Amino acid sequence: MSRYRIPGMGRVDPAKPVSFTFDGKPYTGLRGDTVASALLSHGVHLMGRSFKYHRPRGPVTAGSEEPNALIGTSRGPGRFEPNTRATVQELREGLQAESQNKFPSLKFDIGAVNDRAYMLFSAGFYYKTFMWPRSFWDKVYEPFIRAAAGLGKSPTEVDPDTYAHRNLHTDVLVVGGGAAGIQAALVAAKSGARVVLVDENPEMGGSLLSDPAVRIDGRGSWAWLAEQLSQLRAAGVTLMTRTTAIGYYHQNFVGLVERVTDHLDQPPSGAPRERMWHVRAGQVILAQGALEKPLVFDGNDRPGVMLAGAAQTYLNRYGVKVGDNAAVVTSHDSAWYAAFDLVDAGARVSAIADTRDHVRTDLVDAARKRGIEVLTSHTATATYGRLRVKAVRVNPVRHGQVGAGRKIACDVLLISGGWTPSLHLFSHTKGSLSWDAESRTFLPNHKTEACQIAGAGRGLWGYGPALEDGARAGLAAVEALGRTSEPLAARVEGDRPGTGAIQTELPTDRSAGKAKAFVDYQNDVTAKDIRLAVREGMRSIEHVKRYTTNGMATDQGKMSNINGLMIAADALGKEPPQVGLTTFRPPYTPTSFGAFAGYHKGATFELTRKTPIDPWAEANGAVFEPVSLWRRAWYFPKGTEDMHAAVARECRATRASAGMFDASTLGKIEVAGPDATEFMNRMYTNPWTKLAPGRCRYGLLLGEDGFIRDDGVIGRLSQDLFHVTTTTGGAARVLNMMEDYLQTEWPDLNVWLTSTTEQWATVAVNGPNARKVIAPLVEGLDLSDETFPHMSVAECTVAGLPARLFRISFTGELGFEINVPSRHGLALWKAIHQAGQPYDICPYGTETMHVLRAEKGYIIVGQDTDGTVTPQDAGLDWAVGKAKKDFVGKRSLQRPDIVAPNRKQLVGLLTEDGTKLEEGAQIVLDPNQTLPMTMAGHVTSSYDSTALGRPIAMAVITGGHGRMGETVHIPMPNGTVKATITSTNFYDPEGERLKA
Amino acid sequence: MTTQRHDFNAAPFLLEELPWTPRFSLRVRPANRAALAQALGLTLPERIGQRATTGEAEALCLGPDEWLILTTEAQRDALAAAGAGAYAAIPHSLVEISDREITLRLSGPQALTALTAGCLRDVEAIATGTAARTLFDTATVVLWRDGADSFRMDVWRSFLPHVRAILDKITVELKTGL
User: Fold this and answer.
1) Is A630 inside any structural domain?
2) ipTM score of the complex?
3) CB contact under 8 A, A164 and B172
């Protein structure tokens, strides 16, 4: 048994020792311990160094609000976590823990020199110091600040753990498994509602776990707790421990993070480390309790100085005495009970100094009975000791005058400045708070969500009121859901009621300007800093916060916000609500990235769509590229070919004989119905009325603004049926746009849209031998140019498969696109590949497709257009049905800006020296103009063209269509490139090859 | 009572890919629903999420004017022909989408839990014998509830590898019992 463990106390298991190391030194704790309670059982209070001044620090709390005891934990490679709260991390066998912010060691730290230079590092230090010279910022100041900033070490290895996700719908979600939450859940469950009760601790019970002496319904509080929990289970309530409600969002959507394996010695393989729960609840009951505040005085951060409630928790829940000889400084009754528990457990409490003039006589009597000296109307003015508190200096206060100080020896100093209702989740909902002048605290006021707040979270104190209020909240929640339940009463004996006084920093007889009286332990903000901020002109608490960084650390001011506000309000001479309260934001406690990522990690990081032909491409060495959500074969390198060589070979083979391409990702929409033609006329710029069944047309889709949104070839299969194709990335967007118009503008049209993108697998065959390749496979169709000319479509059989066969081309060569039902896509691909062998058919990828189309000047929407390009700009006015009454975007095409002659227009570019331009490169008309130059446009597409034996480019240039033959200049880092403006139709401008 | 809890003794769920079956998307104005149902020899339920079986064909109402029809290979051509025959009098759209989706079956005591890992919707509230169009992870799916512990999920073909990979992760997770 370790030195400070008290046999027979606590909820830890004395029969189950657990070994761990802290800074390399081995220790033993017990099952049920946290790292903090285990270290405290060995008398170790020093657990870390502070962030700014590197002051030695120990745990000040026993819970998730802990600002000081932040440690690094590890369980092997990749599993290091910085800033783990030692007060939360449960002990597990072999846990490796290390302290932070220290060099070379925790007990002797060089960075502590900052502490001596304390007077230099006041509020706004960085703002004031690192201003000049300006040139020092990038090279000197910023790297220095970055190196000094940050808590703990960032992990550098890939996290090997897995994380999980769940969605959960429930009638009632209760946050907080203390006295109020348990009663609320029980009342709610009795209505037959689905109830979920969550608590961040390893077990339910909240403060009941730290108050075993209280009796409820004739039983000890722990026996009562066990009975209530079994009743909750019997009633079907889902009990979730180690689960933190991190955020409360609109419409009763609450995020939970469940810690699944961090407490296990040996997690089973494949078990997730954490699990994020997205909860949608009919009613939320917030029973989060209250958080204890420290008192602010010089030296209130020394290891061994601890909240009284934390000491009570270490004693009763973990069986750990935090010291042999305690002193207490308090402004709230609750610390008195903590002192009594310590004495009753065999520790010595030499004195209780209370800031108040009057304390309840029963408390004073109980203290004196235990041999505790009672000092009312007292302040604390200093602590002594280096790595551990040795004594506290207390002084009487009479009529505002601080009397002579007196040193009281102690090895642990318990402090309490009262309790702050935990309003974090309520604040997430933008619920408003009201200032309660009597208790001098903020309480929940106007609610924006369907929620109830119960217990200490709304300022109630004592188990009797909390139990009663929990039951009330449970009933209110189910009644709001239209259900009924029974009220639930509980009888409490030995309750611990309490009140307190709210303080600013405590009065002192010494120089307040030299006091290291900490308000925010984690960011090392002192009372002096806050008063300085006010003196320097900060009036709102939001400004004070940002100037001093008070409440901006990972604990989000759980302990510091109210103390900081009280001091700022005092300095301003205003009431606290006039100074304001900063907003709490999610997450409630620091949350791992893994929990947010969930399953979206590794191979499932992002949804990747694959075509039916994808397995063949993979087996044949394709290099893939992402295109919207799809992965597409980019090119098919052979042997040692690089991309450039592979693409050049694929281009050559296709133009010389035949190439094949997986075009399955193209969006496909079946437009069917008696009004299909009318619908097409209204949606697309082109006229459709006269397009005969069996024929195709290039379709251009604009937005209302007249700019190009999408394009694709559209086949008319029958009078009332169109097979529309869209760009790969535009498929869903175009269908949504069409549905939007159909449902909101033209509900009278008898036409329906069905996405068939995935119904069809599509193989494009291009090249002078394309017909010869597919002809032997085609049945029921004469492929000759006479009967099946360019821009034809027919239903037939290809390789024995039912097919829709298009004669179209995106390469400028004779081309066919064969659609078969997707499950046959791979079979079709293989059949064509086989049939093409005599013609050396070459499978090609998206890069070759891009080059071949650019050689013909065919645009790619989203590459050559950017949402500001009109049909005229793109040289596609021929696709606009000028005689049509209307189509989407038609009116915008008349706007003065749209018909202006100086718009950026799509042209071809050929460089004079044969360099390949960079896509995105800016173009100027005069390279000798003064800086900044006037940009005339930019390069949209640029490729090495094998067919032309030189690089080609497309670009948008101001008034480009009227500048044919002119020279423009492209300034690049290593010189300016000259280029000539040309047509975009670089290859076979007469289009003879299409007609083969 | 919520059924979303960890059952340490239950086997994880069974995941199967079901064989191909003919499938159509049917669109018709609500006023013509009954007449077209008669012409096609189907029952077309009126409420979204409702299903109706006629012989071996099953129709699911997905929207006020949208139905999903499952049929057999033997009856596929007859259904298409009946649609073509009725078209002039009752304009509608009957598009074959047999190859658009692939159907998974998830069954067993943990099937519901597995689905809650990916579906935002309250899966528990989908009544047996109904279906819903919803999301699994980021993929649109149609989720059919055939029994308390038996579901079918239609997934667009190209989304299937991702959905399967996520379900594989969930399977591993459920096997650990944590």
Assistant:
1) no
2) 0.94
3) no
